[in-house]
Amino acid sequence: MKNQPINCLKCTYYYVTWDRDFPNGCRAYGFKSAVRPSVTVMKSSGEACMKYTSKR
Questions:
Q1: CA-wise closest residue to 55 among 25, 14, 11, 15
Q2: Mean pLDDT per 10-residue run, the chain (56 residues)?
Q3: Are 26 and 12 in contact (CB under 8 A)?
Q4: In the sheet that 24-26 helps form, which strands lie side by side, from edge to edge?
Q5: How far apart are CA 15 and CA 23, in angstroms?
Q6: Global pTM?
Q7: How far apart are CA 15 and CA 30, in angstroms?
Q8: Strand pairing of 31-33 and 24-26?
């Protein structure tokens, strides 16, 4: 999975916000973003999201 991007839509912590400018939210890291949270995590840390948990 190291080479594949993380699909936030399948993560337990992902949610859709009401904010038009920041429609993607991550409960694990506690932020909203204009792009998928996994992209923001990758850009800021240089590593893939470590808190990804698949929905059941």
A1: 11
A2: 78 96 96 95 92 91
A3: no
A4: 14-16, 24-26, 31-33
A5: 8
A6: 0.84
A7: 11
A8: antiparallel
